[in-house]
Amino acid sequence: MPASRKSGKVFYTLRPSREGLPPFSDIRLPDGTIIRRVDETIHKKALSNAAKALKERLDR
Fold first, then answer.
1. Which of 30, 35, 40, 60 lies 20 to 30 Å from 5 when distance is taken between CA atoms?
2. Which residue has the higher pLDDT, 16 or 7?
């Protein structure tokens, strides 16, 4: 991974799901910062899946 990508920041913003839009879109600023707009429904599902996986791992 290039150094510029490592030092860049990524900010996430949630947006309501809309039919026909991709699940996320990136806006890259000249200083290397990325603003990622994420579909709220997909974000919540990903958090739920991560919590479930963590719980399963801790229960072992």
1. 40
2. 16
Q: 33: which residues sit within 8 A by CB, 6+ positions away?
A: 8, 9, 10, 11
Q: What's the pLDDT at 1? A: 35
Residues written for the chain: 60
CA 54, chain centre distance (Å): 18
How far is Cα 40 from Cα 9, in angstroms, rounded to an integer? 20
Q: Which residues contact 22 (CB under 8 A, 6 or more apart)?
A: none
Distance of CA 8 to the CA centre of its chain: 15
